[in-house]
């Protein structure tokens, strides 16, 4: 009778007891004692390969656990950093840098102080007087002036309306007397700057033109109004300084026909 062949299950344990007993009896290695024996892929027993597979499997498990712990640690750090970042301000990372540029208010204050000093000291620069045939004296710029820049003060005696009218009546008795009286309103009162008296100040000599390059403006110093001239546009060197006297009355035009132009 032929002995019955036993086909082992390639996916699991060896079920042939006789073969198992022979293997156990022929080895004294403790690794075979009371252990389940695994087969190699070709169906042969390989205790060394089985041990290597177990070692590799354990190594992979350790690596996975190590990676998981590292990932958890990174997540905890990121979460902590995120909370700290939300509680911080931009200034914690960037220093505050003060701007060196001045505000409009600061620039206006500095400009006013400069004009105050020029008026108080009687400083008049950047102009000269020249004689023009058929016109008389005129003031010309010796440097450029920017639009809005202070040019000169219309300097004279500051009078209230009653005193100004009295002087004007006196000047009217002498036809040779020129027109140097400038009336204006300030704080609901009428004032007049009388520049009739001959002086070396340039403001009184600037001629009239409807299309002038200067305009009058009031400038307060300690509550006292000063009549000044500022550039109404950019003025080039060599230009005659002109402004509109603003008098359009028939009597004034009859006495001074050049006021029409």
TrEMBL record:
Transmembrane segments annotated in the record for this chain: none
EC number: 2.1.1.361
Annotated ranges, domain SET: 125-246
InterPro entries reported in the protein's UniProt record: KMT5A, KMT5A-like, KMT5A-like_SET, SET_dom, SET_dom_sf
Compositionally biased region (Basic residues): 59-74
PROSITE patterns to which the protein is assigned, alphabetical: SAM_MT43_PR_SET (PS51571), SET (PS50280)
Cell compartment(s), UniProt: Chromosome; Nucleus
GO molecular function: histone H4K20 monomethyltransferase activity
GO biological process, one term: cell division
Keywords for this protein: Cell cycle, Cell division, Chromatin regulator, Chromosome, Methyltransferase, Mitosis, Nucleus, Repressor, S-adenosyl-L-methionine, Transcription, Transcription regulation, Transferase
Name under which the protein is recorded: [histone H4]-lysine(20) N-methyltransferase
